[in-house]
Amino acid sequence: MQVVSRKVVTVAYGEPVHHVMQFDPADPGYLYLMTSHQMAKVKVAACAVHATCGDCVGAADAYCGWCALETRCTLRQDCANSSQPRFWTSASEGPSRCPAMTVLPAEIDVHQEYPGMILQISGSLPSLSGMEMACDYGNDIHTVARVPGPAFGHQIAYCNLLPRNRFPPFLPHQDHVTVEMAVRVNGQNIVRASFTIYDCGRVGQVYPHTACTSCLSAQWPCFWCTQQHSCVSNQSRCEASPNPTSPQDCPQILPSALAPMPTGSSQNIPVHLANAAFFQGAALECSFGQEEIFEAVWVNESAVCCKQVVLHTTQESQVFPLSLQLKGRPARFLDSPDHVTVEVYNCAMGSPDCSQCLGREDLGHLCVWSDGCRLRGTLQPLPDTCPAPEIRAIEPLSGPLDGGTLLTIRGRNLGRRLSDVVRGVWIGGVACEPLADRYTVSEEIVCATGPAPGAFSDVVTVNASKEGRSRERFSYVLPLVHSLEPAMGPKAGGTRVTIHGSDLHVGSELQVLVNDTEPCMELARTDTSITCTVPGAALPAPVPVCVRFERRGCVRGNLTFWYKRNPVITAISPRRSHVSGGRTITVAGERFHMVQKVSMAVHHIGREPTLCKVLNSTLITCPSPGALSNASAPVDFFLNGRAYADEAAADEELLDPEEAQRGSRFRLDYLPDPQFSTAKREKWIRHHPGEPLTLVIHKEQDGLGLESHEYRVRIGQVACDIQIVSERVIHCSVNESLGTAEGQLPITIQVGNFNQTIATLQLGGSETAIIVSIVICSVLLLLSVVALFVFCTKSRRAERYWQKTLLQMEEMESQIREEIRKGFAELQTDMTDLTKELNRSQGIPFLEYKHFVTRTFFPKCSSLYEERYVLPSQTLNSPGSSLVQETHPLLGEWKIPESCRPNMEEGISLFSSLLNNKHFLIVFVHALEQQKDFAVRDRCSLASLMTIALHGKLEYYTGIMKELLVDLIDASAAKNPKLMLRRTESVVEKMLTNWMSICMYSCLRETVGEPFFLLLCAIKQQINKGSIDAITGKARYTLNEEWLLRENIEAKPRNLNVSFQGCGMDSLSVRAMDTDTLTQVKEKILEAFCKNVPYSQWPRAEDVDLEWFASSTQSYILRDLDDTSVVEDGRKKLNTLAHYKIPEGASLAMSLTDKKDNTLGRVKDLDTEKYFHLVLPTDELAEPKKSHRQSHRKKVLPEIYLTRLLSTKGTLQKFLDDLFKAILSIREDKPPLAVKYFFDFLEEQAEKRGISDPDTLHIWKTNSLPLRFWVNILKNPQFVFDIEKTDHIDACLSVIAQAFIDACSISDLQLGKDSPTNKLLYAKEIPEYRKIVQRYYKQIHDMTPLSEQEMNAHLAEESRKYQNEFNTNVAMAEIYKYAKRYRPQIMSALEANPTARRTQLQHKFEQVVALMEDNIYECYSEA
Predict the structure, then answer these.
(1) Quick one: which of 1264, 1293, 1295 has its CA closest to 1276?
(2) Are 846 and 855 in contact (CB under 8 A)?
(3) Do residues 188 and 67 lie in contact, with contact meaning Cβ atoms separated by under 8 Å?
(4) Helix H or strand E segment including 518
(5) 1048: helix, strand or coil
(6) Cα–Cα distance between 882 and 744 in angstroms, integer?
(7) How far is CA 1174 from each of CA 516, 1050, 1077, 1133, rounded to the nearest angstrom?
(8) Would you say residue 378 has pLDDT above 50?
């Protein structure tokens, strides 16, 4: 017989084995066995898995035993000399026969000499006499060992002790060390034992405060020498003095109760002693720690007194240990077996209100309340009563009539002790019993409500000598249940049921019991529904469902849930998949109509499970999970979150019961991913647009048996229709034209989750190249002709140009001199004029907080804002007319159809609880940010929506922000830390922007708002003093060079008498310029009449008509364009006051018009090719057509008008200085707590990472507050005020914002003659502004640090101030859209996170999706 091939077969781990087996006839040490897929030859026993003798013999394997001299578990034939007795110990002999050893002496004094050690060796070992032996102490330390003679029972061996210089060192705070040793025979350690080396002298070092007691209590033979104050092992070393023999005889401090003492006060403290006669008269000291030492004076032989003890603490209470020590060094303490302590308290700390202060009397703290908690003086009377209780919040706000609700009451002065309020909490006439273990002095009461006779609502009162009443009312209601759906489910459990009713949100504890005993898990509830997951049951049957509140009786409703037989899976098809997964697996079976959610998982090699879809009661489709390798693996299905177990499978012979329990009856064979290529394996395919395209794709043989509908072929974004599919070839064609914008399109084929780009399609042909060549030649020829013509023309004009130059120079010199003179005069007079004209009588039109937030959070960054924001558009019919206010989706109702509302609200409630889980939220944010298509716009939107959703929990929001910032700092510190927070490109950076906006709003409104508004008024006033081009927006006075009107256009003021029935006034004198268009005049009139009205309520200029009464009989309607308009160079000039020749003091009337003139639209949007106001846009092109003198008069050195920038700057300087000082100053009555807290956080993070560069910290702080918040406010005043921000004001604010940015920068400004004017304009002031910034940062640094509790209290107050301002459900729904969009990535991140996996966050997230995905899009489309 000849061996053709040889192959090693390994039995798959976990495979079930057939019970019929056969020994190998040639070698009984091997066994033939069968699995469901193969037959294999294996050893009869795996002895090597047992490492010790006890494990080996205790395994009771008849084939295994312990080979003593080889120290391993083997088959008998594998152990040398196993035929001789005691060399091999079988399982039948038992673990008691394993080798063991005892060392004598077991305890060795480190100071005593020992000649050797005796080893008693027992157990099953052959005689060691005559063998090569040694004692092994580890670390390559060996000593000689010997056995005197043969023995077979208990052998005795002698061994030399290891050298004293090789003793192992004593560990700190230990007086002994344990040494492991082994007997080594023939180079193998066969038996082990240990002994102890001790040192009595170390006892006093290890236990300095109980040296004597510990010495006499030690497990070693130690003695205490009183005179030497030391512990010895030889009593003869003690001097002749009375030495104690037991721990009770030691000199020691007796325990005594000491009254608490106030911080900083001087007191005498008595200390009682026992057995201290020997020390009487000795100099002693009282020690309260390392630095707190005070003199001790003997009172008698059993007592001393610590004189004038003064201890300090900055805590509410601090415990100091008290010990007595002999004067001198080293420190020697009298024993203190029972620790004696002194409590020191500080009344000023930890007692923010009266009740907490006076309540400390029960602790022995003598405090009194007087504008704060202070120490009670010796002559001060006993404290009076506290103010009435202040109830700030109650929770919950309703409960069932039966009572039992745990009502939490939070506030201040809620009693000094429980007895103050034990019978003083009432809800109307119903008592609420406080719980002793849940009571927090002054701050919180938790009480159990009593039963009520009927439904009612009343305030909660707390009576602690005085009565306090809650602002909110507690309601007693009667919850009712109506129905349950679905009413049936499989007995395996997992069905998610919804109980409908009314007032189901009441109370503090809810239970849903199935069959009166089993709880329904994962409860979520709203006012009208309760959702939970039913447990499993043993048998199919109807069972009652009970809803209980506060563990009282069941709510009547007669709810019944039917347990039905479990769904059955009969087959899956196909049974093969490629390793990338995604192939559709059809699951056949019965009773799938009861299945709400299904997932599919693959054992051992599978990646994350996939979600399946229930088609009907007999079919489910699942995408196959991805796999780690090519293999066959069992498949698990999870129906309603429960692992599917085939009840009939356990009866089959080949299926292991454990396999049946986990439902692995079905297997999936994974094969390599299919491979494709073009027919000729080319990587580039050329195609001419417009021609038909047919692709032939070659497929490698794979054995998957894929069908035609499983392939997807795409060319770019266009699908290629598959027409023919064979075993090796795929034909597809494209029936639509391919776009040529990109020029190259990838050809991609997809099978499930597998994608392969097989080639690139190149679009275009030779026609394009020919056309391009012709065009290039034509252009070159034309350029040559033009160049020749220009050369000839230039030569003829050179002579004439020189003659003109002299005349131009004379005229230019004259005009420059005149313009500079005028600019200087304006600079001197503008400050005085503006101070007189600026009207500060009007109130500052601050926006409400909610509008400030929506404008700041969503400045055209969120799609939600752009799609749904309704801009103000209203008319002013009368002073009392109703106005349409601007709205935002986050401020209104959640608009969804009522049919969808219950499920939507339940889903949003579940999602809200997930977002309030820190681990989920951080994983959620990181998962989204890792997606390439999650753009900056989406990050800003998500951050703002999260801020709105968590606005009521700013403490939690701040914690999340800090954790995300730590991750951002870690990432930045590894690269360039100075770039951190420079932009807003991540979610946490936008979160920080929003957090600063919330925390700085009070400062903005109370401190910065007035100087900022005055600056805006001053800018507008100064701009309006000169001419403004209505179309280009350029003006005579500005801060921005690009918006400077570089023309010398003289404008004369006109004072007009205007009447207008609106805004509460009848007539006014209005100042305008004669160069103003009629729209500009209307706007100035409206501003004069409506200056005390917010801008959103003003009429618009196009909504009013302006009429001029030229005489008693003649009047004219004034318009920007009419039949009298002048035409210049083919363009119409807008009408002005000068055009109509309206004189000084003319009478005008303005009235609202019903017929709006929309023929022009907005003036600034007019076509400059058809209209102009002050300047012709193409004057420079038209210059050759005009006479030399005319054109030159209009366009000579426009840079000379830059002096007007200085004029405007000087006029506004005072207002700008006031604004910057307001921003960069600290009010003592309202310090910026958030800024201090965040700057300290940045400094802490820098210190942790070893970042000591002060410039880096300065940049971090600047990027966090000035550049992130203040610059945004400076550029966008419409975020703060209800005003109009024109394009010109926006340009001026950009220059001011740039100056503020430069002031916060630490880099030196490199300025020159070519630097932009917006940098040069404030270059002189920047150094002074920088000093103000640095002083501000130092003042913040020098502020008292805030504790987490103080900051949390501040944030809680901010949340409370603006609670219920926003509809958080809308924000949650928008956040959910992102969760839905990136659901697989979020699930993967949750699966990869250990904490999320442990708390099953991924399953909770799946529940949210299950509730929402069938409703949200349908409901939004209906909405």
Answers:
(1) 1293
(2) no
(3) no
(4) strand 518-519
(5) coil
(6) 60
(7) 88, 11, 10, 8
(8) yes
Q: Is 458 helix (H, G, I), strand (E, B) or coil?
A: strand
Element (H, E) at 1354: helix 1348-1361
Angle at 195 between CA 193 and CA 197, to 5 degrees: 160
The residue type found at 725 is V
| 559-564 and 488-490 beta bridge pairing | parallel
pLDDT value of residue 1103: 85
Residue 872's pLDDT is: 34
Say if residues 1317 and 1311 touch (Cβ distance below 8 Å).
no
Residue 306 has pLDDT above 90, yes or no: yes
Angle CA(819)–CA(823)–CA(829) in degrees, nearest 5? 145
Question: Quick one: DSSP state of residue 998?
Answer: H
What tokens appear for 125 in the block?
A: 């070992």
Q: Quick check: 1159 and 1026 in contact, CB under 8 A?
A: no
Cα(925)–Cα(168) distance, rounded to whole angstroms? 53
**Do 356 and 328 meet the contact criterion of CB atoms below 8 Å apart?**
no
**How far apart, in whole angstroms, are the C-alpha atoms of residue 389 and residue 395?**
17
Dist. CA 264–CA 312, nearest whole Å: 5
Question: How confident is the prediction for the chain on average, in pLDDT?
Answer: 84
**Shortest CA distance to 203 belongs to which of 191, 218, 190, 183?**
218
Q: Could you tell me the pTM of the whole model?
A: 0.46
The kind and range of the H/E element at 1060 are strand 1053-1062
Segment 138-172, tens digit of pLDDT: 888 999 898 877 665 678 889 988 888 889 999 98
Better-predicted residue by pLDDT, 884 or 368: 368
d(CA 585, CA 612): 9
Q: Which residues contact 337 (CB under 8 A, 6 or more apart)?
A: 210, 213, 247, 252
Nearest to 668 by CA among 639, 694, 633, 643: 633
Peptide bond into 451 cis (omega under 30): no
CA distance readout (Å), 975 to 588, 979, 980, 1171: 55, 9, 10, 55
Number of Cβ atoms within 10 Å of the Cβ of 1312: 7
Q: CA-based diameter of the chain, in Å? A: 149
Q: Are strands 100-104 and 133-136 parallel, antiparallel or unpaired?
A: unpaired
Strand 284-287, strand 252-253: pairing: unpaired
Q: How many CA atoms lie within 13 A of 878 on its CB side?
A: 3
Residue 817 scores a pLDDT above 70: no
Predicted confidence at residue 1375, as pLDDT, reads 92
- Residue by residue, DSSP assigns 620-673 as EEEEPPPBSSS-EEEEEEEETTEE---TTGGGSTTS-HHHHHHTTT-EEEEEPP
- Checking 433-439 for CB contacts under 8 A at 24+ apart, the result is 435/406, 438/406
In contact, 67 and 74? CB cutoff 8 Å: yes
Cα separations (Å) of 248 from 214, 217, 252, 254, 340?
Answer: 11, 10, 9, 11, 17
- Paired with 513 in beta bridges are 519, 546
Q: Are 57 and 65 a contacting pair, CB within 8 Å?
A: yes
CA 394 to CA 427: how far, in whole Å?
A: 11
User: Is the CB of residue 1282 less than 8 Å from the CB of residue 1094?
Assistant: yes
Backbone angles phi, psi at 208, to 5 degrees: -65, -30
Give Cβ neighbours of residue 549 (< 8 Å, ≥ 6 apart).
399, 400, 402, 404, 405, 479, 506, 507, 509, 510, 511, 555
Per-residue pLDDT tens digits for 624-641: 999 999 999 999 999 999
